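ok so for the tutorial part 2 we go from a plain amino acid sequence to predicted structure tokens. step 1 is just haveing the sequence, like this:
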Amino acid sequence: MNNKFPEVKPDGFTPEEAAVTMRVRVFVNMRWFAILAIIFAAVIASTVFHIGFSPLPVYIICIFLAIYNAVLWRLTRNLTSEQTGFVVPRVKHYLYTNVFIDLTMLIVLIHYTGGIENPFIFLLILYVILAGIGLSHKTTYFIATGAFLMVGVMVTLEYTGLISHINLEGFMPPDQYKQASYIVAILVALAVLLYSSTYLTTAVSGELRKRQRQVVALSQQLLVEKETELDVSAKEIDKLEEEKKRFLSFLGMAAHDLKAPLAAIQGFLWLILTGYTGKISDKQRDMLDRSSRRINDLVNLISDLLDIPRIEAGQLVQEMKDVSLNELIKRCADDFSTVAKEKGLDLNVEVPETMAKIKGSDIRLRQVVTNLLSNALNYTLWGSVTIRATETELEQRVEVMDTGIGIPPQELPKLFYDFFRGSNVSVKGTGLGLAISKRIIEAHGGKIWAESPCPETNKGSKFIFTIPGKS
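step 2 — the prediction. this is what the tokens look like for a chain of 471 residues:
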């Protein structure tokens, strides 16, 4: 839908509005400086250099400029409340009024401080330069012409006696303003300097504005391109997410359909191995044992594959209840105590006697702890495995440390990828345990990561996961 007004930036202005408003504020700030400089120059001229002129008109002009500047400053402060689209015309009106009053006050000031005898008449050039920075070419040339004509009118009126001339006693001869050659020289020099300054200033500022417009146009073009790319990327991501959901759904159904017949085959093999169907030879038993182990590995893989779509679908929410993490860890450690003893490893359990209960899935968290302990015991040939639990007001933290083979540094970032297997691992597995553990922990709002070597022992590896405390 098309808007009636251009888009507003967070500061309340469009880029064009911000630019013209900045110009007005620059003029306001420069005017404060100019007022102070004029007062200072008047005081120094009369007290230090003893130049004879009446400073009262100078002070009156400065007071008028200060009042006018304060009003303009207030008006620019209120510009943020203007409706978008009306700021630029209003600011341009301020600028043109600003220029007219400034030039008029400068000419009046020059008149009361010696007229054409005052060397500060050339400060009109500085004003034109400032105008050229902030205004258009035509406006700047118009200001330069207006300034020159106003000086010419002032000089003519003083020369003809229509207005009184203020002589700078002790600085210039009393009849200097009547010297035609002096007047012509000053006016020619002023005209040359005014128009050459105008040309140089407008040329440079015009080129800068041109570059600025090009930069703005380029940035807008790049913004449009990036927005288009983001839209395409967002659609691709949505498409991939949809395909992922379909794949996970298919994976779940396929794994479920495979598990039933495999379980049946496993059951029949168990009956044969137990002698229910009759006596079997040692060779037959060995072959059936190996077949049973392979089927058991396949059933575990299918169970892992079934876990992924369940977790991705958010089924863990239905399993959430109050869980005592320290009790859960103790039970898991008890399950592995025999395995650790058979391998000659020390299994250390460092958990508090009591810990606050958290909201979580008991079976899934047990699955994570079991997986971490199992990996630690499998990949540790000697030494120890330690599981530790701590808690703060915000979270509970579980660490599993071992003195095993460790993890190559370049493989740490890939550790929780689906089906990833370390290059230094010889124990068989599906490569899904850590990936599923990561999904489970993240489904609880926690984080899981690994460090290798373990910072405490400088050996093996250390797995850490955190779970938010119960709110």
